[in-house]
What does this fold into?
Amino acid sequence: MTGTNSRRIYLDNAATSWPKPEAVYDAVDAYQRDNGATAWRGAYREADDVGRRVQQTRKRLVELIGAAEPERIVFTANGTESLNVAIHGLLRPGDHVVTSVVDHNSVLRPLRFLEEHLNVQVTRVPCDGRGIVDSDSVSQAIRSNTRLIALVHVSNVTGAIQPIEQVGRIAREHGVRYLVDAAQSLGHLPIDVGQVGADLLAAPGHKGLLGPSGLGVLYIAPGCEKELRSLRQGGTGSLSNEYRQPELLPDKYEPGNLNVPGVLGLGEALLFLKQHGLQQVRKHAEQLTARLLDGFA
Ligand SMILES: Cc1ncc(COP(=O)(O)O)c(C=O)c1O
It folds into this structure.
């Protein structure tokens, strides 16, 4: 670690991780200083290089979550936007959603908005004394018009880990779409979207993934994009002669220029996580926690 804050003790990693791996700072700096091109908008060397490295970040993300097609990763501004793209894109008037009382405001508030403005019905299932949601209560809440189950993986308040695989099985049994909010888990815990049965997985790039701020990711499982409307439309650098927003992934959900420095920084952060391994990173966090508790004692 370098800089004036090198001796700072930072305890706010649930809000955003700090410090980042050195390679993240270097990637952001090198891009801004030496490259500066947009992704998929130009046909010259620097633009090609940026496009290739943006694609590499998507590849590292799908590898991390056990998915196959890099195009199924959509970049957004933060975890909140990823969740909004999923929730607003999927729900229609008269739909019913099951979520929980321990979900984050970036799920609960869009749902509240849709309850008030789009006649969407919402069931918020309770949790037990440890903050854990019972998968049976999710199952019991499902109705004939349930279109979505939205569940946080790890609570930002209590750290409770929800039974996302059991709930995923329930979603599959009932043919209901399943959105997992992995804001506090991606980069900390292993997640395989196939095993979890997630149709949509949302996370910020700046928390456990160790990327720069101002970036979020959304994974969209095969087939789900047919039901998921784009919230914003605009330039994509593809099919530019068409008035309609392209249906191509990820372009459908990525109008406008990307946060390229953020994406390239995230690419380096993902390489760091891969090289060190999630288990090693977790062990380090546990050692620091033990030291802190020891100090308190
Ligand atoms: C569980 C959970 N979901 C979603 C978010 C939203 O992420 P962002 O701050 O990147 O919008 C947070 C952020 O604290 C969170 O803890």
